[in-house]
Description:
A: FAD/NAD(P)-binding domain; 3 domains; 5-stranded parallel sheet; 11 helices; 24% helix; B: mainly alpha; two-stranded antiparallel sheet; 22 helices
Amino acid sequence: MHVYIIGNGISGVTAARFLRKNSDCEITILSSETDHFYSRTALMYIYMGHMGFEQTKPYEDYFWKKNRINLINTHVNKIDFDTKILKTSSKGDLSYDKLVLALGSSSNKFGWPGQDLKGVGGLYAIQDLERIEEYSKGLNRAVIVGGGLIGIEMAEMFHSRHIPVTFLVREKNYWDIVLPAEESAMVNREIRRNGIDLQLETELVEIVDDGDGQCCAVKTSKDDTIECGFVGLTAGVHPNVKFLNESALEIDRGIKVNRYLETNIDDVYAVGDCAEQREPAVGRRPIEALWYTGKMMGETVAYNILDQKIAYDPGIWFNSAKFIDIEYQVYGEVSGRPPDHHDSIYWEHEDGNKSIRLVYNKNTEKIVGLNLMGVRFRHEVCEKWLAEETDLHTVVQQLNLADFDPEFYKSYIADVQALYTSSTGKPIEKPVKKTLKRVLAFLGK
Amino acid sequence: MSSTLYTSFTPEKPPLLDAVQKVTLALGSLGLLLMLISWAGVSLPSKALMFYTSMGLIFFGVIVYSWRTYMIQPAGIKNNGNFFSSISHRGVLAWISAILITGFYVVLYLKAEYLGLGDTENSGLVAFFDPLSQLMHSKKASQWFVYGVLYTLAIVAFGIKFIFKYRHNRYEIIRTISVMFFQLFFAFLIPEILEMLHPETATNYFGKDMKNMWPLDYDFFDSWHIQNLSKGGLMGSFFLILGLLMIFVISPILTYKFGKRWYCSFVCGCGGLAETAGDPFRHLSDKSMKAWKVERWMIHTVLLFSFVMTIAIIYGYLGNEPDRYLLSRSTFTWLALIGLIGLSAVYFILQTKNVEDGSKNSKYIISGVVVLAALILLFNYLAGSGNAYFLQNYGFRQAYGLWVGAVFSGIIGVGFYPIMGSRVWCRFGCPMAALLGIQQKLLSKFRITTNGSQCISCGNCSTYCEMGIDVRAYAQKGQNIVRASCVGCGVCSAVCPRGVLKLENGSSDIFSKTAEQKAIHITEDQVRMLS
Lengths: 445, 531
């Protein structure tokens, strides 16, 4: 059996790794982005000079040969699903037995005038980074459109090179659909503390052409014109499925897959950013363009290809990011627009850049989510509390078990416990102390 | 469509120095220049004033410059531009510095007269340090005094720089204060003061780094050293007993509880210099599998060499002068035999007991070689040979002193900072690190915990590991990091943008702490049930 995987990102590569781990089939990964797998999440660090491209490769180059995974740098232009043939730009026709589509995504463009000018682009692939690098020479200002995770990364990138940045965010506060109000305000402060020009409730109206097809300014919904040599579009991503639109493959926004990551065509699977779940898990979106979900789908699809059927289960929601210098972690249900039956215990450090939020169901008093800013929590402990629908009171009492900050750091757990007691009137008796032994015992290890 | 540019990113302009930085850079350079002028033989007016001015300018130059670099920015990880800068990324400046530092070490260890060391009177660079030497112990400076002053100055000044850089991280601050403290007091001030108080005897056992312990301090068991300690009265006996306790009791206990970091990242002078002055070069260490293989062979060979060398010299002087020592050659031989075979047995059992191990053959090789070393000793003893290992006993000591003590730890260890990273010696050559490393891997509570599935494989941890550990390889699998070479500097944890790594100690899973944990949610049971 020869399995072809289109796309050498985390989803495709994880699929290949688990196929190899569990079988002897022939595996070929096709990509026109790079020769080898690299970590997309580290693109910003290449630009900032924290790492070189080589350092972003999770496996040394010998790994692929040793594990008999063929890598081909070519672009798939067309897929003939009837004859099971991939038509490539430089390697002719390739015939597959099973096919995994791990196509990734591209940055959204919402029909803004000037969106296709030179000096306008998102940040997804290495080629995007090269474009940014090219325009960074002598750049007077960069304008970034879209208040999400890639937007703030791009702002930090330009800022690290002392290039002035204007950051246009449509919402009232940075990423306030996802982050609760206090955390959102904290990130606003962090952005401004770094000297980045954050413009809230401001939308892009038009990107201005300098006459040579190159952007020279943007016009905003506040009737401002901001001169800039680069415009970063970071208002989300969409699956790279355009070249498949005329095919028999069922596509909505992404490639439709069932719980086994099978598409409507036999022997064709889709994973990662380009897959759209027909029946997403409760509370989850049909497309989740995330590193972690890509990894889980890659593993799941490998088992399904090998006829060990297993449904894709993204588990309990978690995510993390870093907002310039503030680390962020989230576990479970935390929202900027929480439902009425949710409430939370929110502690914030007096310096205004660390916080701990415990979200619970008001009716049942069970924990439903944890949101951390500038504080690290232990994933497995949080996951266990959430999976077992633990009482808020028990979580607060055991809170030390989740503390994952480095040694010698001041612990804020006692402050959170005191806040809980003062706001609920319930004292915490015998709070669990923090030792690795207790953590391991709690996790049953 | 394929990409060609990404391998050669360079920024369009280097970050500019502001006025304060320019002035402090100039002042620091002036301090250095005064030193160089005196080395060149130009006689300066008022020697003492020039010396203190030079040291002061260098010290304040470094501190004010780094204050200006880091304190005007918000606290956080400051690695911007590391891969673009000439000094920190093997550019011209890095090569020039490497050549200059290496040259300095060659002269220091092998040709001290070029520094101006004289029999009756110093000249040049050594004479430049006479005023401080006279002040501290009323005699002229030696090349080692010059080295000690510069070494301590570097650790303290760049330690303060490091604290500015990592001021948001209490682990880094405490660790750095600790190495600065141990260098300043235990390696420099206290030995010098003791020498001032006991000028006639103290040089024989205080005139060195008090925090060094065998096998890093490779002449601890030399006959002259043991004799001086035993003749040194209360103070001498104290240091003899302390030295032995450190090796056989204190170090194993601390390593069990905290891993080898208690020494390598909190106490050691070599580590201290690497962590402070060497910090801009930490990302240059080679992370490849090949480098790891070379490392394991090399460092364990040095460890074996240090054992053989020590046994050989003790065997030698116990035989030559049996009346001077409490221990007889035969008792020593049997103790050494029991010790070596016991060690290799313990090693073999622990290695078998630990759940995961990459190299299945290593336990046979290492135990076998140690047993062989014991048997050769036995053979020579029974044959009545005066030499423990066929060759001249003291020959081992001389070869070790030259090749390991001088060439490896000094010339290569520090001289190659700007090219191979800051912990070349600690990683490839230090017998102490090797010994503590074996214990750390097999019998210690220490590990670096990976936080569930939060790793995004970005590579910051591996990049900034000065020991060349591919931290990411473990983190992305959700596996704890338990590596013999880890010195517990904590920088992987600091630079991780997702809060994935934590250095911690725990005893309950001590033999299964490397068990692979799934970073992904599918368990093998789930798969089997459904298939």
